[in-house]
Every structure is written in structure tokens, then in C-alpha cells.
């Protein structure tokens, strides 16, 4: 299938090219030329995750991957489950945090890594990315041990939690991590300078692995199907499902809209944000007015200019999906009281999932609400423990890396130094 640039519609590329390129000309996002409605939804829902995902993704990668190549990629990428857990009669959570870095980003990052390696044709690729926490871990683990791919991750020294740091700096092998003496913005500026240096980019096969890559979105479509498949097995009414999606850059919501456009029975979506509420305000007023980003306890959603929004907007405006998105913004106090409320229902959650659960509040009685659990509560141990006043256990993945030494090197926020490092 071809993918076209939403800003420069003449630019049309294959799936392989879209994966390798990331962004199109003029920073435009790639979008599939068609989203094929599937006519065998019931049959698909009866399949296991990997087999179903191959069928869901096949139309998008046709021409670039055979079914058996796609099956290998999906098998390697989705080697952990997505789980529906009931909260009460009207609510369930879709837990997406059972991957190696305990966050939903594992789905997209692992699928992208496998695709990129497949399309690399044995050319050397350098993934350069800046992280303030979660993305770095998902990217590092997704690319760990893959041939011909070198990963360099920059992060602000001393500005992320020790546990977060340990999740991506202790791997070694093809994963190199650099603690930059500066802020996250300094790290991002260094990444941008590297991409702007065309000779450098060419010499080392520079690639970013960020969340606008179409392969990451497509991977995420698969767990919406998995959620509905599990609800069906539990004999839930499938016509009335509402998904609440804790949103930052809106990749997760975009994937949900793809699933709906493909015919998955989903009634509507609630786009749940923290106080960084550009989208809920836009949906209410029609005015796009980002404000200064505010730091919150659901920090993976501290985004005021979400980079996937043009895809959502395109799908709604062009009628690919009906008008099925409402926005709800949840403040810090509500987030914390919701963590407490959920724990009284017997469920330990973390700030992002709590924002989504709270945002479901306005569901009708005949609707069934599913909120996405995007991270394991132990990843937000400090805030969860202080909110609940009780300790929470570290899962094995975190406990294992907590004891390992950090392998990072230190560097000042200096492009020439980084360039020399990258070229060595
Ligand atoms: C990245 C992230 C989000 C936001 O997802 P988007 O696709 O950017 O909207 C939500 N929760 C957690 C824990 C995340 O890491």
C-alpha cells in the first residue's frame, strides 16, 4: 500500500519507505491511501493475537512484506499479552504494560524495530533519540541485540528517576546511552542538529524512532482488536464499547480510530488528557490554542502540541470515522483521588490510567467503558505510594535492572562533541 504525506499530498511512498523516512516533506505525517474495512470481523476476533494481527496489518504492508515475513515480525514484536481486567460491571481496563519495559510503547517500538531491521538491507542504521523517560526504555529494549542497528539515546543527566534511568542504560551491546549535562530540550536540540547535518545523517544512516512513525501506529491498532476479542469471549455486548484513551501525542487514539474505521465495533472514544488540555478545548471551541506545557504526575502526557493530531483531524474531517471523539481534561487532584477510588475497587493503577478512568465518568448507563492502562503502576512508584500511603512491589523487569550498573557516558550539551562521538 502507498502512504501519502498529509501536508504535501503529492509525496507518496511505500510502507518500507515511510518506516525508514519517519516524516515526509515539510514535516508532514504519512497516512495510508486507504483504510480497508474488514468483512470478517467475527472470524478475526476468534483468532489468537498474532494470527489476527497479521490479518489486520496485511493490507497496509502489502507489496513490502509477504504474509510469512509479516508473521515473523509480529511474532517477534508481540511476545507479551494485552489483558482485559474487569473493574466492575460497567468498566474494564485494557492492560498494555506486560511488555519488557512495562509500558504500552513496547508494542509500537518493537514492531517498528523489527520492520526497520527487515527493510535495512544490511545497511548500517543509527537510531538517535532523546528521552525524558519512557520512550528511551521502549526504544532501547526494542532494538537491543538487532544486527546492523546502533542505538544512541540522549537524556538529561540527573533529571530522570534512577529507576527510569536503569531501564535503558544497563543493557549495553548495541545500546549506547549518553547523560547530557543539560535539560531535555537540550537533548532534543542535539538530536535535531544531528538530523539537520545532512552529511552526518548520511554517513551513519541516521533514523529517529519517534512516535510519528506509521509502523508504531499500525502496531497499536492490533490491541484494540485484542481488547474487543477478549470482551466478546466474556460475552459482553459489543455495540456499546467506549474506549477512554490517556493521551499525550495522540498516537494511541489515532490507532483506535484506525481500528474503528476497519470495522471493529467501537461506539466512541474519550480522549482523556491531564491539564495539558489543548485537544479537549479544541473539541469544545473549535479553536487550536496550545498553552505553555504544565508538569503533572501523568508526565508522559505533558504535551501541549500533540504531534499526531493532524492524523486524527484528517480522519474526522474526511469522514473516515464518524464524529466519535469527545475530550475530557482531568486535573491533578482528580487524578490522585481516582487512584484512591480505584484502589478501593481493588485495582492499583497509576496516574495515566487514572486520568482515563476518571474521564469515563460521563458514560451512559447502557455503555461499557474500557480505559487503557498504559504503564505499570511500579513505573510511577513514588506518586502511587505517596497517594495510597502503602508500598507497591517492583515487578521482575524493574527489580532485575535496578541491580545492574549504569553504562552511560557523560557529555556536555555540545553538538561538535556529539558529532565526533557518532562518527567514531
Ligand atoms: C506515551 C504515553 C501516553 C500517551 O500516549 P500518546 O500515544 O502519546 O497519546 C500515555 N501514558 C503513558 C504511560 C505513556 O508512556
Automatic annotation (TrEMBL):
GO molecular function: pyridoxal phosphate binding; threonine synthase activity
Domain of life: Bacteria
Known cofactor(s): pyridoxal 5'-phosphate
Domain Threonine synthase N-terminal positions: 7-78
GO biological process: one example: threonine biosynthetic process
Signal peptide: none
Pathway where this protein functions: Amino-acid biosynthesis; L-threonine biosynthesis; L-threonine from L-aspartate: step 5/5
Domain Tryptophan synthase beta chain-like PALP positions: 95-362
Reaction equations catalysed: O-phospho-L-homoserine + H2O = L-threonine + phosphate
Record protein name field: Threonine synthase
Originating species: Thalassotalea algicola
Name of the gene this protein is made from: thrC
Amino acid at each position: 500500500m502507498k502512504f501519502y504525506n498529509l501536508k504535501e499530498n503529492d509525496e507518496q511512498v511505500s510502507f518500507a519507505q515511510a518506516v525508514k523516512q519517519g516524516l515526509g516533506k515539510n514535516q508532514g505525517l504519512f497516512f495510508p491511501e486507504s483504510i480497508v474495512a474488514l468483512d470478517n470481523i467475527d472470524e478475526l476476533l476468534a483468532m489468537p493475537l498474532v494470527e489476527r494481527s497479521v490479518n489486520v496489518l496485511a493490507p497496509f504492508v502489502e507489496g513490502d512484506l509477504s504474509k510469512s515475513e509479516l508473521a515473523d515480525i509480529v511474532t517477534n514484536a508481540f511476545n507479551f499479552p494485552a489483558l482485559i481486567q474487569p473493574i466492575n460491571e460497567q468498566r474494564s481496563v485494557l492492560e498494555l504494560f506486560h511488555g519488557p519495559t512495562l509500558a504500552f510503547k513496547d508494542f509500537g517500538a518493537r514492531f517498528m524495530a523489527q520492520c526497520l531491521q527487515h527493510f535495512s538491507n544490511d545497511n548500517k542504521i543509527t537510531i538517535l533519540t532523546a528521552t525524558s523517560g519512557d520512550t528511551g526504555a521502549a526504544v532501547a529494549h526494542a532494538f537491543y541485540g538487532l544486527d546492523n542497528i546502533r542505538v544512541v539515546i540522549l537524556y538529561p543527566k540527573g533529571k530522570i528517576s534512577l529507576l527510569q534511568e536503569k531501564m535503558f542504560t544497563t543493557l549495553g551491546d548495541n545500546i549506547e546511552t549518553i547523560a547530557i549535562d543539560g535539560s531535555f530540550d537540550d537533548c532534543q536540540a542535539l538530536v535535531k542538529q544531528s538530523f539537520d547535518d545532512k552529511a552526518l545523517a548520511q554517513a551513519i544512516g541516521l533514523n529517529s524512532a519517534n512516535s510519528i512513525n506509521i509502523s508504531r501506529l499500525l502496531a497499536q491498532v492490533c490491541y484494540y482488536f485484542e481488547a474487543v476479542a477478549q470482551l466478546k469471549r466474556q460475552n459482553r455486548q459489543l455495540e456499546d464499547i467506549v474506549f477512554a484513551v490517556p493521551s499525550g501525542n495522540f498516537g494511541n487514539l489515532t490507532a483506535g480510530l484506525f481500528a474503528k474505521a476497519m470495522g471493529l465495533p467501537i461506539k466512541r472514544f474519550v480522549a482523556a488528557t491531564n491539564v495539558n488540555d489543548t485537544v479537549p478545548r479544541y473539541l469544545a471551541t473549535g479553536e487550536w490554542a496550545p498553552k505553555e506545557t504544565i508538569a503533572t504526575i501523568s508526565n508522559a502526557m505533558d504535551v501541549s502540541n500533540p504531534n499526531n493530531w493532524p492524523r486524527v483531524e484528517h480522519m474526522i474531517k474526511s469522514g473516515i470515522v464518524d464524529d466519535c471523539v469527545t475530550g475530557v481534561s482531568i486535573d491533578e487532584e482528580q487524578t490522585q483521588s481516582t487512584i484512591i477510588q480505584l484502589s478501593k475497587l481493588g485495582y492499583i493503577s497509576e496516574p495515566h490510567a487514572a486520568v482515563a478512568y476518571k474521564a469515563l465518568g460521563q458514560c451512559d448507563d447502557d455503555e461499557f467503558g474500557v480505559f487503557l492502562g498504559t504503564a505499570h503502576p511500579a513505573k510511577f512508584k513514588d506518586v502511587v505510594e505517596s497517594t495510597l500511603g502503602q508500598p507497591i512491589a517492583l515487578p521482575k523487569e524493574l527489580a532485575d535492572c535496578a541491580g545492574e550498573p549504569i553504562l552511560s557516558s557523560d557529555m556536555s550539551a555540545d553538538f561538535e562533541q556529539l558529532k565526533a562521538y557518532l562518527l567514531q
